[in-house]
Amino acid sequence: MKRIADAFDGKKAFIAYLMAGDPNLEKSAEYILAAQAGGADLIEIGIPFSDPVAEGPVIESAAARALAQGTQLQDVLSMVASIQDRVRIPLLLMTYCNPVYVYGYAKFFARCAEVGVCGVIIPDLPFEEQAEAQIHAREHGIEMVTLIAPTSQERVAQIARKAEGFIYLVSSLGVTGVRSEITTDLAAIVADIKRHTSTPVAVGFGISTPDQAALYAQVTDGIIVGSAIVQLIEQHGEHAAAHVQGYIASMKAAM
Question: What CA–CA distances, in Å, run from 84 to 80, 87, 113?
Answer without folding.
Answer: 6, 5, 11
